[in-house]
Specification:
Blueprint lengths: L12 H17 L7 E4 L6 E3 L3 H6 L6 H4 L7 H11 L8 E3 L1 H8 L5 E5 L5 H8 L6 E4 L3 H8 L7 E5 L8 H15 L4 E8 L2 H12 L6 E7 L11 E7 L5 H15 L7 E8 L2
Amino acid sequence: MLSYRHAFHAGNFADLLKHTTLLAILKHLCEKPGAVHYIETHAGAGKYRLDSQMALKTGEFSQGIGKLWHTPQLPALLAEYLNTVQAVNHGELLFYPGSPLFAALTLRQQDRLHLCELHNTDFPLLQQSVQNDRRASCYHEDGYKKSLALVPPVSKRGLVMIDPSYEVKTEYQQVVTQLKLLHKRFATGVYALWYPVIDAAKVKELVRALKNTGIKRIQRFEFGLNQNHDAAGMNASGMIVINSPWRLKQELEDNFTWLLNSVYSDTEAYWLAEELVGE
């Protein structure tokens, strides 16, 4: 369908979870010298203006990055998240980096970025956002198909980010099939799957299907503004991580518990961290 535009939602509470998780995984991968290959199936535009008509129409960033922008003394991971957003701004919060820029600002010179985007409007914006980065390659192709062609990377070290819009309901099944195919080709890779909580039944089906894949070492993280999943719209979102770095669960737990107690204490926000499948 390709009607989804992330510019309406950039910097919201779901991006807070997605990009904090992404940042943490990449930092752990960068602790070893071998080159890291970052592969993203739905890269979007790369960077978003928060004063644009689309962003202001929803104002969703006020419930995400807007809450942290002037918050002092953040714990380490959230401080690094905020520093990354600040790196694309000049004092005032005008821009929000998408996953490609979070990756680009975290990875090292020896690392590589492979960014897929099929949307005809977002693809040239993506190219523009990384045009001066020799580490980055952009593909105006189906990210599901292209990611399979890119694994395993030569270094045998990498993260595949899968974050579709789920405009088409069958995508909940498609992402599970995709993970099975990718894992078969690159079993030691790290995989991060983002999902929205709009239809609680769909999320339960997704989790059940992932448990039945036979893939080991699967963790789930979920952050929401409230637990009323029958309410209209997206009130929560989650990240599924396969082959998670060993400290990731505790690191996210510490930072999001702090968030709930300090930044979202006057809301009904909640946090979930669990191991879906062990070793």
